[in-house]
UniProtKB/TrEMBL annotation:
GO-annotated molecular function: cellulase activity
Coiled-coil regions listed: none
EC number: 3.2.1.4
Top-level EC class: hydrolase
Upper classification of the organism: Eukaryota, Viridiplantae, Streptophyta, Embryophyta, Tracheophyta
Name the UniProt record assigns to this protein: Endoglucanase
Domain annotation Glycoside hydrolase family: ranges: 58-514
Keywords recorded for this protein, A-Z: Carbohydrate metabolism, Cellulose degradation, Glycosidase, Hydrolase, Polysaccharide degradation, Signal
Pfam families: Glyco_hydro_9
Catalysed reaction equations from the record: Endohydrolysis of (1->4)-beta-D-glucosidic linkages in cellulose, lichenin and cereal beta-D-glucans
PANTHER family: ENDO-1,4-BETA-GLUCANASE
Domain of life: Eukaryota
Organism per entry: Oryza barthii
Active site: 446
């Protein structure tokens, strides 16, 4: 499987060296452990009914995971349940006459990057749309909605006119030269915008996807807000499609942090969500007839991430092929079939005993693509897998075929379960990578606020807390840390940001994955 994604954080640290090469013996063990796959066609499984009994393991983990969004909130906090957090960044946006105080900090630092933040909102919206009933059954829907709106409120305010969007608050270089709590930071927080002369189609289109998907979430809950989100989404998409260019080309410094490697995937992603939100055939034609061949890279599976939205788009559009779409032309249906075929290639690459399975795994069974933030790809892939398996179940699709072998929705779900279980502690380290879940989890998360006592007076230079070997005084509940090396090892050191830093965008798909596993249920055949 191809990958566009590179490392995402920007300051230099000493990375710990570990073996990153999986042996043929490990792959053989993986195949033996996995099971699944049949040389003959399978029969459809029964369609699940309403949400059933709650699996307490995944329900508890979901409740923990959602708390990280509270940890990451900026602005004037409401009903704050994180005792060591307080109001911060209250003046963000004031130089431009805007209120950009809300939103969420990106990771262990205090920059607001609109690109990954918007991706977080999009996948969180998708998770709610697919699994809102499951979240509700687990009593976790309200925290998910709260987190989503905290981000979309920021995105709305960051779009003050049709062709202007603010993509960053803060200076990463200044920020990374400080180690301080967000509540006491005093360095300048400049604003970065894209406009007609300084384009950023990737960021604008991702924001359009976020607000289009969120508009569906809030449609039955707050009609006025939903309408506003949709209007912003449509205008941002037009802006992104009309004034094409990469934000990281416009602002080369971004290449050190979130260096998007293309904007075509975001345009398809945004148009797909706009079609789901509006039913407007022009968006469907955009992704199929007009730009499918040029932008979609049909037939070549890739890894879903904050950078590359193709695999997510393929799975999202495959739901139209599974459940049907009104008034689609033959050419549009052909395009949708190509998206679904490529989505199946993605799934076939994930199943460990599939003939086309990726060999990029750890001995413990984790999909492993990159040393930096290694859990990102496993979490994202598992989320897509559980969604796709539920599309199959609901449509009574018996199997996917991978080079002559057939795999049922249960096989695909079992892959997702294996990744979730690894994250929650079923791994060679016997360590939960979800902070606050289980009896053993990382104690030195690379996170400024968590590492500094709430009453400490550090100013900008609190680096003694970065380099301390003591556990964090504050628990970053719900943080999904970067994860293990390819030999399944993990070094719990705050200086080891490669493995111990967490990010909001990892949490978005983790919430979706856990919500899909918390109980069994059919998915809605339409979002509207």
């Amino acid at each position: 499987m191809g990958s566009k994604t590179k490392g995402c954080c920007g300051w230099l640290i000493v990375a710990l060296v570990a073996s990153l090469v999986a042996t043929a013996a490990v792959v053989a063990i993986m195949k033996k452990k996995a099971g699944g796959g049949s040389g003959r066609k399978l029969k459809p499984l029964p369609v699940p009914g309403p949400p059933g009994a709650i699996d307490s393991k995944y329900g508890d983990a979901l409740g923990v995971a959602l708390q990280f969004f509270q940890v990451q909130k900026a602005g004037k906090l409401e009903n704050n349940q994180i005792p060591w957090r307080g109001d911060s960044a209250l003046d963000d946006g004031k130089p431009a006459g805007l209120d950009l105080s809300k939103g969420m900090y990106d990771a262990g630092d205090h920059i607001k990057f609109s690109f990954p933040m918007a991706f977080t909102a999009t996948v969180l919206s998708w998770s709610i749309l697919e699994y809102g009933d499951q979240m509700s059954a687990a009593k976790q829907l309200d925290p998910a909605l709260d987190a989503l709106r905290w981000i979309t409120d920021f995105l709305v305010n960051a779009h003050p006119s049709d062709n202007v969007f603010y993509i960053q608050v803060g200076d990463p270089d200044l920020d990374h030269n400080c180690w301080e709590r967000p509540e006491t930071m005093s360095e300048k927080r400049p604003l970065t915008q894209i406009n007609t002369k300084s384009p950023g189609s990737d960021v604008a289109a991702e924001a359009a996807a976020a607000m289009a998907s969120a508009s569906i979430v809030f449609k039955s809950r707050d009609t006025t807000y939903s309408d506003s989100l949709l209007q912003h989404a449509q205008k941002l998409f037009t802006f992104a499609d009309t004034y094409k260019g990469l934000a990281s080309d416009t602002y080369p410094k971004l290449q050190n942090y979130y260096n998007s490697t293309g904007y075509q995937d975001e345009l398809l992603w945004a148009a797909s969500w706009l079609y789901h939100a509006t039913g407007d055939q022009t968006y469907l034609s955009y992704v199929t007839v007009e730009n499918g061949k040029a932008f979609a890279d049909w037939g070549r599976p890739t890894w879903f991430s904050w950078d590359d939205k193709l695999a997510g788009t393929q799975v999202l559009l495959s739901r139209l092929n599974f459940f049907g779409s009104k008034q689609t032309s033959n050419a549009e249906n052909m395009g949708l079939k190509m998206y679904r075929d490529t989505a199946e290639a993605v799934i076939c690459g994930l199943l460990p005993d599939s003939p086309s399975a990726t060999a990029s795994r750890t001995g413990g069974g984790l999909v492993w693509i990159s040393g930096w933030n290694s859990l990102q790809h496993a979490t994202n892939a598992a989320f897509l897998a559980v969604v796709y398996s539920d599309y199959m179940l609901t449509s009574q699709t018996a199997a996917v075929q991978c080079s002559g072998k057939y795999y049922s929705p249960t096989d695909i779900r079992n892959f997702a379960i294996s990744q979730a279980n690894y994250i929650l502690g079923d791994n060679p380290m016997k360590l939960s990578y979800l902070v606050g879940y289980g009896s053993s989890y990382p104690q030195q998360v690379h996170h400024r606020g968590a590492s500094i006592p709430a009453d400490a007076k550090t100013g900008c230079k609190g680096f003694q807390y970065l380099h301390s070997t003591s556990p964090n005084p504050n628990v970053a509940m719900g943080a999904l840390v970067g994860g293990p090396f390819q030999n399944d090892t993990f070094v719990d050191s705050r200086d080891n940001a490669v493995q111990t830093e967490s990010s909001t965008y990892n949490s978005g798909t983790l919430v979706g994955l856990l919500s899909g596993l918390v109980t069994t249920s059919s998915v809605a055949q339409s979002f509207t």
